[in-house]
């Protein structure tokens, strides 16, 4: 049983969004598998390692949410989220090459790592801190796998620096605007009785998220990890990375 007060809206929204997104990873795998058809080692890893670890994240976070906010009907909320989310996840939306898709996955793994570290720093519940720490360690391993895959395919694809930079920026925006917004939608609708806090609109949630991030988000580490796959010796490209890091930070804090 968690020791976190359940009157804390930020943690309810954040943890439930995480539990939804992590629990829907089978949809990602269905989409990614045909894309990585040419690489059987990656296909096996997605199915036998990545899928199982992400599903475990979803399961553990769901247990945490159900223990801490028992009046929220997780299953019905998750069903609404799935109905909204699955049609959005079509293979055509993926990047146009294996190397670039692997790069886009690096963004998602970086974000998960850093968001989990941020919430772990904000929370005062040892159970939640421990859970998020464990999850972020897995996400770093996933990042490394996708980074190696990107670098392997980069040798053949030889994508331009600006093309790769565009993928990083674009994916950073998508995660916030699409995935998180969809996962938020059912969160005020499936309470049995009244919630133990005054409910928030999505806009208020984003404002609070930005405030929490200002204090707890590891921006420097996030920058290093996010732009690591673009490692470059060119001075102009290094400068571009600095500018992009500022843009990404501003995207995150847009609603503050
Ligand atoms: Fe995960
Ligand atoms: Fe992951």
Q: Secondary-structure element sequence?
A: HHHHHHHHHH
Number of helices: 10
Q: Outline, from the CA principal axes?
A: globular
Bound molecules: fe (ii) ion
Radius of gyration: 18 Å
> Which band does the percent of strand residues land in?
under 5%
Q: Quote the CATH topology.
A: Ribonucleotide Reductase, subunit A
What's the overall average pLDDT, rounded? Answer: 88
Poorly predicted parts: none
Helix content: over 70%
- Give the second-level CATH assignment, the architecture: Orthogonal Bundle
For CATH, the homologous superfamily is named as Ribonucleotide Reductase, subunit A
The chain-level structural class is mainly alpha
CATH class: Mainly Alpha
* Biggest beta sheet summary: none
Give the N-terminus to C-terminus distance in angstroms. Answer: 33 Å
Number of strands: 0
Count the domains.
1
Please tag this protein with its features.
256 residues; mainly alpha; Ribonucleotide Reductase, subunit A; 74% helix; 0% strand; globular; binds fe (ii) ion
How would you explain this protein's 3D organization?
- The structure is a single chain.
- With 256 residues, this protein is mostly helical.
- The chain has a single domain, classed as Ribonucleotide Reductase, subunit A (Orthogonal Bundle), CATH 1.10.620.20.
- Helices cover 74% and strands 0% of the residues.
- The two termini are 33 Å apart.
- The relative contact order is 0.15.
- Bound molecules: fe (ii) ion (2 copies).
């Amino acid at each position: 049983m968690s020791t976190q007060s359940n009157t804390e809206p930020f943690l309810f929204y954040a943890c439930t969004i995480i539990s939804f997104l992590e629990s829907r990873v089978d949809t990602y795998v269905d989409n990614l598998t045909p894309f990585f058809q040419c690489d059987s080692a990656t296909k096996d890893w997605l199915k036998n390692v990545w899928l199982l670890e992400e599903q475990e994240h979803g399961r553990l976070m769901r247990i945490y949410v159900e223990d801490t906010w028992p009046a929220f009907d997780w299953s019905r909320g998750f069903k609404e989220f799935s109905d909204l989310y699955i049609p959005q996840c079509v293979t055509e939306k993926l990047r146009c090459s294996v190397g670039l898709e692997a790069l886009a996955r690096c963004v998602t793994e970086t974000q998960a790592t850093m968001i989990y570290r941020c919430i772990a720093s904000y929370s005062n519940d040892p159970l939640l801190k421990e859970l998020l720490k464990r999850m972020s360690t897995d996400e770093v391993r996933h990042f490394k796998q996708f980074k190696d895959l990107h670098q392997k395919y980069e040798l053949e694809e030889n994508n331009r620096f600006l093309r790769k930079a565009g993928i990083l920026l674009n994916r950073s925006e998508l995660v916030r605007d699409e995935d998180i917004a969809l996962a938020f939608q059912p969160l005020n609708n499936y309470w049995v009785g009244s919630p133990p806090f005054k409910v928030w609109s999505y806009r208020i949630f984003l404002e609070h998220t930005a405030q929490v991030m200002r204090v707890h988000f590891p921006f420097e580490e996030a920058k290093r990890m996010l732009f690591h796959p673009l490692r470059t010796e060119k001075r102009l490209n290094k400068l571009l990375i600095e500018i992009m890091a500022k843009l990404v930070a501003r995207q995150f804090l847009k609603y503050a």
